[in-house]
Amino acid sequence: MYFLTGWPRRLLCPxxxxxxxxxxxxxxxxxxxxxxxxxxxxxxxxRPSVLIVSYIESAKAAAQFGFYQKAEWKPDDxxxxxxxxxxxxxxxxxxGGGDDKYLYEPVYPKGSSRVKVTPGYxxxxxxxxxxxxxxxxxxxxxxxxxxQSLQEDLLVCTADGYLHVLHWxxxxxxxxxxICLTTIPFSLDLQSARGGPSLDLEGVYIRCMEYCLTLDGFxxxxxxxxxxxxxxxNNTITADQLQGVSAADVTDGTCVAxxxxxxxxxxxxxxxxxxxxxxxxxxxxxxLSHKLELTPKHYPDxxxxxxxxxxxxxxxxxxxxxxxWECGGLSLWSVFGAHLICTLGEDFAYRSDGTKxxxxxICSMSWGAEGYHLWVLPNKQxxxxxxxxxEEEMEMVEPPQSSLQAGILQFQFIKSxxxxxPCTSNQEQVLLHGEDRLYLTCGDPSQVHTTSDSHTHLHxxxxxxxxxxxxxxxxxxxxxxxxxxxxxxxxxxxHSTYLESNWPIRFxxxxxxxxxxxxxxxxGFAHYSLFTRKWKLFGNITQEQNMTVTGGLxxxxxxxxxxxxxxxxxxxxxxLYQRSSNLDNAFASVTKLHSDTLLLNVFRDMVILFRADCxxxxxxxxxxxDGPNPSASVxxxxxxxxxRYIPHPALVVSVTLTSVRTETGITLKAPQQACMAESIMLxxxxxxxxxxxxxxxxxxxxxxxxxxxxxxxxxxPPVVLAQCVENVWTTCRSNRxxxxxxDALWLSCxxxxxxxxxxxxPRDHRKPHSFLSxxxxxxxxxxxxxxxxxxxxxxxxxxTNEAVLYDGLQGSAEPLEALFPYCTVERTSQIYLHHILRxxxxxxxxxxxxxxxxxxxxxxxxxxxxxLMVHVVLEEEATSREPIxxxxxxxxxxxxxxxxxxxxxxxxxxxxxxxALWNYLFAAVGNPKDLFEECLMAQDLDxxxxxxxxxxxxxxPAVSRQHATLLFNTALEQGKWDLCRHMIRxxxxxxxxxxxxxxxTPTTQEPSSTGxxxxxxxxxxxxxxxxxxxxxxxxxxxxxxxxxxGPSAKGRDVECAENMYIDMMLxxxxxxxxxxxxxxxxxxxxxxxxxxxxxWLCRERNRVAHVDDFVSALKRLHKDxxxxxxxxxxxSLSSPLKNGRCRTVLSTRxxxxxxxxxxxxxxMDTVPPQADPSNNTWLDGLGQGAKDMDTASSAHxxxxxxxxxxxxxxxxxxxxxxxxxxxxxxxxxxxSVVDGDWTMVDxxxxxxxxxxxxxxxxxxxxxxxxxxxxxxxLRYLLHVFMEAGCLEWCVVIGLILRDANVIKQVxxxxxxxxxxxxxxxxxxNGLLAVDTWASTDCLGYKPFLxxxxxxxQQLMDSTSEQVLPEAFQPTSQSSKLGGSEGLGGAAxxxxxxxxxxxxxxxxxxxxxxxxxxxxxxxxxxxxxxxxQGDEEGAYDCTLS
Length: 1440
Known about the structure:
- By secondary structure, this protein is an alpha+beta fold.
- The protein is built from 39 helices and 58 strands.
- The strands form 14 sheets. Strands 1, 28, 29, 30, 31, 32 and 33 form a seven-stranded antiparallel sheet that branches.
- Helix 11 (about 835-840) crosses helix 13, helix 13 runs antiparallel to helix 14 (about 890-895) and helix 19 packs antiparallel against helix 20.
- The radius of gyration is 46 Å and the shape is elongated.
């Protein structure tokens, strides 16, 4: 359709004049414009938009004739008639200045290929020098109200009620007739005109009149506001041969404009609306077709304040109409009333600060050539105001001169290629053309071709993929991403050389793949390829200038099909040009035609032409590759005469060949027939007519007839399918899965929206019902103007105008064009599937709706379609004032249950609708509680969470809490942590919502699990936390746990109860995880939900946190953390380290010096050992270490055995200062150095020279380790269990990590009197069980168990001692859970609270997991060591 673009241009008249132009009239081809001011007639040229000539009346003549008022051109542009105020008609001859007289001379750069002998270039480019000569004036002795030009005559209406017929040439008394209006009989229709009553026309005259060629009559507005239509009964206009028809009940007409292509008459009314009438062919009466008016919905401020309609202007192709009112503003509608643009609202009417602009008032307007421009003359007072401002400014600069004659505004438009060239390929792509550029929606060409052809051959010439004739089953539909990927257009500038001599562009076409375009201007044509980004023009300019395209352009594979007129042979022709060859007639295949072609279209391998003698011709095209260049041969198949049905050839808007048929031999079994050309669709002035092949005669099987003499079936008489049709879409593709959408016919019907003629298929090859029709016409509304239909994707593509405000232009003298915002055109798209499904359900065609929906269920926006359907029906029915006898919502709900996304569709729809409609919705779809439970059963927790919000609003708090608890537990079980966090928040909100008063703002930190976690995380994991903040943290937490006092006590009670309720659930889940030995899940649970794990474990130390079966716990940890069971290397049998004791020492050394992962995790390949002359081996202490082995290994970890060397980790990069770290545990996850950057060096920087066997052993150790992440997680958990004093778990984790220090530490703790005797017993029995299991099932653990043998021995001996339970007392007053008696019973101290305390009974200070303290080394000063001791083992790890 038509879209406004950019700002309007303002054309200034170069002549100084005090007069204002107030009337503009275009010539028949719209190349010239006559502009009138009071005593001046000017002629302007269209491109370039310049003034050619101006005739200024002398003062004496002006006094005699009066001021100029209206103008009219003779159809051949040779004369202009001007009406004056005193009743004179002045006739001017327009004289050309001869061949060489031009106003402008084109100047080409030197060496330019353009020669000046180009025929036709001067007329176009250089504005011919014309002159005006006045002939003898004609005095009609009464004021003139209207002028209308016919071929040979000029019709003039005067205010005394006469209609004058003047002859353009013989302007004497002989060439003039006057007809009195009262002698013309007027009636309501032609049948009653013979004897019926006639209108009383006394004292009435014609105010406005326009001739309609295709209706052969005059649309008139009478001075009393009545509307009429006058037809001459035969070809001559004489008084006794005229007959009038009037429109009933209209008395406020102001103006009229006729549409010749659609046979419509648009009458403007004083009420501000435009009534569009058609003539009923049967009775001859005037019938209202539709109204054009602004709706209160879109223009609430202005719709009834526009004033009377001032002017109506149809575009040159008659597809749109522009309307302006007395109060100003412009509004554009499509021919059947789809509203496109209005300048009375939005950014056109308001500045960016919200102030209202005055809308521009217009006194005359006219469309330019091909509708690319609208020439507008603003009202005089608009200009006066503007000029006064300009003069004020000019006074400062220079003395005022007589001002320039004020401007003409020129609005620029781009339009859809469908308006003039409705060929099939243009219907699948959105193609718009402006006067010098094309806009198309296309994505990446490579994408397009991967979807269309799997085997693409390249052209020898331009390297672009060759087209294949589309196979019936192949889908040529572009990918969705291509057509919907972005809002931007692909803009192609039309070649300036072609435009220079062939402006304006009249036709444009794009191929189905969207990669090639062709345009045709005044002469010749040119085409462009997106692959090469190049235009192809005729090499021989004479060939270009000797043809003009008459019937349009189309693409067939890689040929351009052109219906043109050849000036040399004076012959109409059909030509095909190959895309990759040069553009030259030598490579064209030419077919002669007998009559002028008006329209052309392509269907598969057929071309259909509509000709000026109202006949339709079908041609077949075949590709030939026999010559050096591929060519095409064209053969006439069939001619169909339509003259009986078509009153005038100009009325045919489009002609299409389709595979659509009514008596669908459409069974689902026979898709092959879908590919044949079955019917012709003809848009006759908005009536869609269908001609089908006549299959009633004897049918011949295709096999029996030889291929060459196949006779095509004749066509049946035409059937009217629909009225008010603007565009038709159909496709020749077929797809078994989407038969409904591909066999359908899509219509765009203006204000009535769209219609689809949908086939109805019997299900599963059943016999169709005899009473069921085979197709159904369904109307539906969309919010955009449709320009293309994507059949398989169930989408409509369009475009819309967007305005951009610029404030920089506001000033004291705001130019006229700055009243308008800058206009852009944006791509839009819309889903239509929900409309069709709904229409089918309304008509009880649920089975068809289901088949259609199932075929589209894979579309990405299918859930959205379902939501829209529910939403639209719900809004309509729930807000209806009258009761609905047959509500659709239950049907829609039942329909949606057929799809798996039923539950989420309903809840999404509910949450986007207001609460008041929920009861109506759930009455139809079911109780939300049941739906919630269905979600839980289907494990769809996110949807269930959405239902909770519904339940919270519709049910009492107790119900929503109950359901929330259910969901919370399920989410915990499934590890949906985000959802769990939301649920905690939700449950708290329910708790606070139960009180009458809103919940108070807490002054201190809430005693919530999250708050606790923050504090817990700061204390025990972060490296940067200082001791002071720890104590404040403790104090803070203690404070919040004490019972609140003061006015908010009641609210706090509820909050505490709510938090307690949530904590109980979290404790229950943690207990559940620990019982099932799911430590990894427990860690995730704690980290994700901020669960205070250590505090809880302290309380559960002797209950759920004790380990029943060490072996099964160990196995479970191996499985959960993907940790391999240890294995014994085969080589150890013959290795020098056969001695178990030696091996144990090596293991100890490895484990001691690297209990974390520095060496075992460093890249052994990338970090070679550094060479050193001293052959100190790394294990140099082994020799004398063997005899001290027992003492060394049994020594307490606080004493250092003399044989062990401290291992240093030095940075490979020297930029960072070298420092030593005793235990690799200090290298936390957040350490700034990547693990691979560390290498082991001995204290004396000795080399790591290892024997083969030792290397094997180390590699075995590597093989026996799990993933790094698991190691970090296990260390973290070990740390947590240590702090909580859960010694049994520490032993299990120590075993899996095979960390002797951990076991030593734990066993040394067991000596402490605070540890209950049962724990000691459990640890002893557990270790014995592991030993037994290892001996039988897992020998890999034996070396490690041998290593810790002394500790086991120590444990066996110590079990005889008894520990008194009284000793188990808190040792530190600053215990973190000091105030927690109210929550968890007796508070147990946490081992780490006593770190560094001097009480003799306190537990020994716990070392970081797997680390051991060491004497301060030479490199680090004592303070640093002390600090390190504090921070040791602090983990800051994120667990996923």
